[in-house]
Amino acid sequence: MDKGALMPSPDETCCVGGGGGAGGSSSFSSLRAYGRALAQTPRRLAARACAAASPGEEMSRVRARSGADMARALRWPDLVGLGLGGMVGAGVFVTTGRATRLYAGPAVVVSYAIAGLCALLSAFCYTEFAVDMPVAGGAFSYLRVTFGELAAFLTGANLIMEYVFSNAAVARSFTAYLGTAVGVDAPSKWRIAVPGLPKGFNEVDLVAVGVILLITVCICYSTKESSSVNMVLTAVHVLFILFVIVMGFWRGDTRNLTRPADPEHNPGGFFPHGAAGVFNGAAMVYLSYIGYDAVSTMAEEVERPSRDIPIGVSGSVVLVTLLYCLMAASMSMLLPYDVVSTPPLSLRWLGPALGILTSLMVAMLGQARYLCVIGRSGVMPAWLARVHPRTATPVNASAFLGVFTAALALFTELDILLNLVCIGTLFVFYMVANAVVYRRYVGADDDEEGRRRGAVPTLAFLLAFSLVALCFTLVWKLAPRGGARTGLLVACGAAAAAAVAAFRALVPQARRPELWGVPAMPWVPAASVFLNVFLLGSLDRPSYVRFGFFTAAAALVYVLYSVHASYDADEGAAAAALDGAKVLDEDCKV
């Protein structure tokens, strides 16, 4: 292949992110030009909001906007290590204790198995996209080629913001674990108080800033070396968890699996709170699986995507599920479920300290690649898309997010940050599962008639199925226990299964993946949609308020900046293609 054909022309390069447009003009070249662009906002929204790029464009013309290529240096062991490092974080021991005590009891083992199955279903959906389109954008790229630019931008912006807040919160928690390790229990002794600032923002945490900046330098230097560091830290962390598992099975008492410490006030048995407790526990522990999605953003740096990505993404989820189930069983045997509270001192710093470092590294690797591809698409400045030719990493995006995250971690308290985490990630999982179904059942990109014919029944099915899942969730959360509630839940479940069966029988698949595809289509992605709706229903009201606020802020940025930058980029690319066609035509005449 002629590599020069994949490189953007000077006109196209300058137009990305608002640097140029048709005829060399730009929406941002002057205040007058920006005013004219704002006056054309409705027309530009109509042209760009639902504009879907093709996978071929994402892997050639759009990727070429980064300049140098990312190095294909990762193999499936690297991806498994990154998946383990991203998922097995600092809070797993605390989460297990809370889910055991409050909801599932010893059956928290089953809760982890159910949550692992949910994660595996979502991982299958990510894997199909990553194998078919091995680019660095992860869910942003998947949604952009399926539902268009606006849907991709809103979900991507929410996901990046939650990555940033989560990373800042985790980095500040490292200070507390480090203090415990050296005998300083109060984190405030490691922080500098600043009089005059409001509470929650008045303690400067230089340790958290140092950790974030150190990891930023590492991921800017080399992806392969970052993977190697992650492998070492993750191996030590997993060995520590295995030690806890061995001690639980060796020193634990199997009677604790069925007998509470206070049988007069707490029910006994392996399922003390029934099926409801198990599923509520699954909703709580599912957050311990978040992190595997970052592995899909490394697809552009994988040697053999068709082999390495399925093993790396799905294999890491399976291994983590096995690890979590064994750990939950061992902890349940160590103590009766009704006296499990905070973990012992050793569990509060030995494992978590390593988990913080690995989860931070994987998350920061993933968010940098999200932002890099968002910059490539033209909706954010092209500076963010640049890949350094020597390190073969998205240095600009990595450095920008590292500095931004460090600034948040410097002042903002942990609880304030943690309240902003989770809903965006679950929403992206929900969107990707819908996108897999849509792409399978809607015609190819060059078949407009086929796309129109398949889009209506597919969108109708996805909407109806989501509404049934929402009804099930509302009944589960709000209806009082009794026969009527059980009947409604069974009816919702039956309606969901009937909808999937009818859709599969009546609507043929328009395309089939060449290398790797989600099995049992559309049952697997439909189950992922259903379960993610159910998990979204377990979140509190403030989470939705904050999600709405971030979505509104992202929509405002899109209307005021991104749609115009994207319009300029598209116009510039069209002008460059036209100029190239004219040159070829003149050459042919000569």
TrEMBL record:
Domain of life: Eukaryota
GO molecular function, one term: amino acid transmembrane transporter activity
Signal sequence annotation: none
Keywords: Membrane, Transmembrane, Transmembrane helix
UniProt cross-references to Pfam families, sorted A to Z: AA_permease_2, AA_permease_C
Bilayer topology term: Multi-pass membrane protein
PANTHER family: CATIONIC AMINO ACID TRANSPORTER 7, CHLOROPLASTIC, INNER MEMBRANE TRANSPORTER YGJI-RELATED
Name of the protein this chain belongs to: Cationic amino acid transporter C-terminal domain-containing protein
